[in-house]
Specification:
The complex is a heterodimer. By secondary structure, chain A is α+β, with helices and mostly antiparallel strands. Chain A contains 8 helices and 20 strands. Helices cover about 20% and strands about 35% of the residues of chain A. In chain A, helix 2 packs parallel to helix 4. Chain A is globular. Chain B has 12 helices and no strands. In chain B, helix 2 runs antiparallel to helix 9 and helix 6 packs antiparallel against helix 9. The relative contact order of chain B is 0.15. The chains are: A alpha+beta, B mainly alpha.
C-alpha cells in the first residue's frame, strides 16, 4: 500500500514539482532546508492548497483531473507548526471538536489519545492557559481524536523552545511505536528525523532529491546527509541482556553486539542506535588490546572524498550500514578499496 | 415623570426609532455577515470596487443618499414604480422605505468591523477545522463566528447606534409621519423649530447618553478582547 502523488504547484517565488510514492505505513519524514517545499507538499496532501495534481492513497483517489476530495472528507489528522488551538474553546472541547465529527468512532479513541499525550490534567484549561509544549500535545491529541487513517505533522517542534522540544519528542516516539496509522512528518531537523523516521524523502528547491529507507538514505554517499560533521548511520537493534558486573547493556543487531553503559530498558525491547561517522575508526586486524569494546567485522562498500584531507567510507556490517570518516592518509595506509574486509571500531553509540 | 417630559409624539418617535434601529441592525447582520466574509477572503481583483461602494455612506452627505433613494423609491422611480405595478405601495414615506435607507446608510458600520474580525482571525482556524472533518458551513458557525464575536458585538452596536442617529436620509425619504416615519432625530428638529426647547433637551440629552454608553461598551469589549489575546501568546 502506497501513497502516489504527482503535484505541480507554482507560486510567484516558488515552485513545487514532485512525482513520488511513499509507503502507507510507519513514519515517513519529509526533510529539506526551509523553502524546499516541505510544508506545501504536506498541505497539498491535506487538500489545503488549491492546486492541480494527482493523489492516490491506497486504492482511493483523493485528487485527479476530475475529482478533488475536500480536506474535510480526507481521513487525515493534521498537526500544524503552531498548535493553532481554537482559542474560544478549552482543551477538552478542542479535542472533542474532531471526535464529534468523526465517522464510526467510539469514545476509546479519544480517551487513548488523551492518555498517550498525558493531558488529563489540562482538559479544563483554555488554550491561552497552556504552555507551548502543552498546547502542542493538545493539538496532537485533537488530531488523533478524529480517528484519522493518516497523521500529517508539519514541524510540530519547530515553534517550540529546546525545553519544550525535549518534552514533546518522547511523545512522538511513543506515537511511532503505538500508532497503527502511517505518519508523514515534515522537518528540517536531522535529529528529529533520526529519532522518528522509517522512510525519508529529501526535498530541495521543490524537487525530490531522494526517497528511501532512512538507514539507506543517511548513508548514501551521493547525498548531502552522509557528509559533514553530523554524518551518522542508524541501526535497528534489540536489548539482549544487562551485564550486572560492569553495569552495561548488551544490544543485539544484525552483525553482532554493542555494549553501552546500562540503560533502564526491558530485555527484548526494540532500540534505535545512532553511530556518528567520526566515532568509527578502521583497522585491518582485530585489535585485542584496546579500550574500545565495540569492534565489528565489516566490508567496505563505497569511498568518497570528504573535503581535502578526509574520506567518507560506507561499510556493510551484516544487514546494516555504517559510515566512517577517516583521513586520506589512513585510507592509503590501510589500502582501503571497495570490497576490503576490515574491522570497524566504534567509540560511542547513541541510543535514540 | 418621564411621561411628563415626553409627550405622545415623542413616545411614538422613540418606539419608531427603536423599531427601525432593531430591524435594520438585524437585516444588516444577516446580509453583512456573508458580505464581510466574502470581502475578507476573496482575492477578486475588483473587490475594492465593492468595498468603496459599501463605504460610500461614510463620506457622502446623507441628503445625497436620501435624494437618490427618494427618486428610486417614489412612484416614478424604478423600485417604487415596480412596487406600484405589482399592486403595492411605493416605498417613499413608509417605514419599509426607512429600513431600506437605514440598511444602506449603516452598512459600512456593520460590514467593516466584521470584515476586520474575520481578517484578523486568519485562515488557520478554518483550515484546522477542515482537517477535523468540519464542512464549510459547520466550520463557519462553530469557528469563524465565535472567534469573531467581538466583531459581531461591535458591528451590532455601531449599526444600531448609527441608525438611531441618522437624520438626513430619514428626512429625505421618510418625511415626518408620527408613528410611522417620525424618528427621534426628526422629533428633536421639529421641537426646535417649534421653539419647544424643553422637549428637545430631554430627547437630545437621552440620545447623547445612550450613544455614549453604547460606544463605551464597544471600546471596553475590544480592549478586554485584545488583552485576552495578548495574554494567550
Amino acid at each position: 500500500m502506497t501513497i502516489r502523488c504527482r503535484l505541480s504547484i507554482t507560486r510567484t517565488d516558488f515552485a513545487l514539482d514532485v512525482d513520488l510514492s511513499l509507503p502507507l505505513k510507519g513514519v515517513t519524514a519529509v526533510f529539506g532546508p526551509s523553502g524546499s517545499g516541505k510544508t506545501t507538499f504536506l498541505r497539498a496532501l491535506a487538500g489545503l492548497e488549491n492546486n492541480k495534481g494527482y493523489i492516490k492513497v491506497g486504492d482511493v483517489i483523493w485528487q485527479d483531473e476530475q475529482h478533488f476530495v475536500p480536506t474535510h472528507k480526507r481521513s487525515i489528522g493534521y498537526v500544524f507548526q503552531e498548535a493553532s488551538l481554537f482559542e474560544h474553546l478549552n482543551a477538552k472541547d478542542n479535542i472533542e471538536y474532531g471526535f464529534k465529527r468523526a465517522i464510526d468512532v467510539d469514545q476509546s479513541v479519544m480517551q487513548r489519545a488523551i492518555k498517550l499525550l498525558q493531558i488529563e490534567h489540562l482538559l479544563d484549561r483554555r488554550a491561552s492557559q497552556l504552555s507551548g509544549g502543552e498546547r502542542q500535545r493538545v493539538a496532537i491529541a485533537r488530531a488523533l481524536s478524529a480517528n484519522p487513517s493518516m497523521l500529517l505533522m508539519d514541524e510540530p517542534l519547530a515553534s517550540l523552545g529546546d525545553k519544550h522540544k525535549k518534552e514533546i519528542l518522547p511523545f512522538l516516539e511513543l506515537l511511532h511505536g503505538e500508532l497503527e496509522i502511517p505518519m508523514i512528518y515534515v522537518s528540517h531537523s536531522i535529529d528529529e528525523v533520526a529519532h522518528l523516521a522509517d522512510h525519508l524523502i529529501l526535498l530541495d528547491e521543490g524537487r525530490v532529491v531522494g526517497n528511501g529507507e532512512i538507514s539507506e538514505m543517511l548513508t548514501r554517499l551521493d547525498m548531502s546527509l552522509s557528509h559533514g560533521e553530523r554524518a551518522a548511520s542508524i541501526i535497528e537493534a534489540k536489548v539482549l541482556e544487562h551485564d550486572d558486573n560492569y553495569n552495561l547493556t548488551v544490544i543485539d543487531f544484525s552483525c553482532g553486539r554493542f555494549f553501552v553503559p546500562r540503560k533502564q530498558l526491558p530485555i527484548g525491547c526494540d532500540v534505535r542506535l545512532r553511530v556518528e561517522a567520526r566515532d568509527v575508526s578502521l583497522t585491518t586486524q582485530r585489535q585485542e588490546e584496546t579500550s574500545i569494546l565495540n569492534i565489528l567485522p565489516a566490508i567496505v562498500d563505497e569511498i568518497v572524498d570528504e573535503g581535502d584531507a578526509q574520506v567518507m567510507v560506507r561499510l556493510k556490517a551484516g544487514n546494516d550500514l555504517l559510515l566512517s570518516c577517516i583521513t586520506k592518509k589512513s585510507a592509503e595506509l590501510l589500502k582501503l578499496q571497495i570490497g576490503s574486509e576490515i574491522y570497524a571500531q566504534i567509540k560511542s553509540v547513541a541510543l535514540l | 415623570m418621564v411621561c411628563d417630559m415626553l409627550n405622545e409624539f415623542d413616545l411614538s418617535a422613540l418606539i419608531v426609532t427603536l423599531k427601525l434601529a432593531s430591524v435594520s441592525t438585524l437585516i444588516l447582520l444577516v446580509i453583512g455577515t456573508p458580505l464581510a466574509w466574502w470581502l475578507s477572503n476573496s482575492k477578486w481583483k475588483l473587490k475594492s470596487l465593492v468595498e468603496a461602494l459599501i463605504a460610500l455612506p461614510l463620506i457622502l452627505p446623507p441628503t445625497v443618499l436620501g435624494f437618490y433613494l427618494l427618486i428610486s423609491l417614489g412612484p416614478n422611480g424604478p423600485i417604487g414604480g415596480a412596487m406600484q405595478w405589482l399592486g403595492a405601495q411605493p416605498l417613499a414615506f413608509t417605514f419599509a422605505g426607512l429600513v431600506i435607507g437605514s440598511v444602506i446608510y449603516s452598512m459600512p458600520f456593520v460590514v467593516q468591523p466584521l470584515q476586520n474580525a474575520f481578517a484578523s482571525m486568519g485562515s488557520r482556524p478554518m483550515e484546522v477545522a477542515a482537517t477535523l472533518r468540519a464542512t464549510p458551513i459547520d466550520r463557519f458557525f462553530t469557528v469563524a463566528v465565535p472567534l469573531a464575536r467581538t466583531g459581531f458585538v461591535t458591528a451590532a452596536v455601531l449599526g444600531f447606534a448609527h441608525t438611531v442617529g441618522e437624520f438626513g436620509v430619514v428626512l429625505m425619504i421618510g418625511g415626518s409621519i408620527p408613528g410611522e416615519t417620525q424618528v427621534l432625530s426628526i422629533a428633536i428638529y421639529d421641537h426646535v423649530e417649534a421653539l419647544e426647547y424643553g422637549n428637545a433637551h430631554w430627547l437630545a440629552g437621552g440620545l447623547l447618553l445612550v450613544s455614549f454608553i453604547m460606544l463605551v461598551v464597544v471600546y471596553s469589549l475590544n480592549r478586554r478582547f485584545s488583552l485576552l489575546q495578548r495574554s494567550g501568546q
